[in-house]
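Sequence only, no structure available. Ideas?
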Amino acid sequence: MYLDHAEFQASRGRLMKMADWEVRLDAFLRFNEQEILQDKGRVSHAVALALAKKEYTAFRVEQDRRYESDFDHAMKQLPKFPAKGKKKTP
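Reply:
I predicted one. Tokens follow.
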């Protein structure tokens, strides 16, 4: 929702500074009854990076399992013809 708001602002040509976005983000979080961090938090960069890599690896396994190339997708769209030498029975 917040990214939709940002895109809408950009489409209207509204120039905003980072400080403006900070105020808007805080208001958005309050509206959605979310807490606003008052400091850097307790997770180190190294721990966050390790967690992100772990999650991404799990995501890729599922993504690769479901992946279908454009070629394979197009092949599924082609009509099915009987094999040579076999006639269709009415």
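The chain has a mean pLDDT of 89.
Hope that gets you unstuck.
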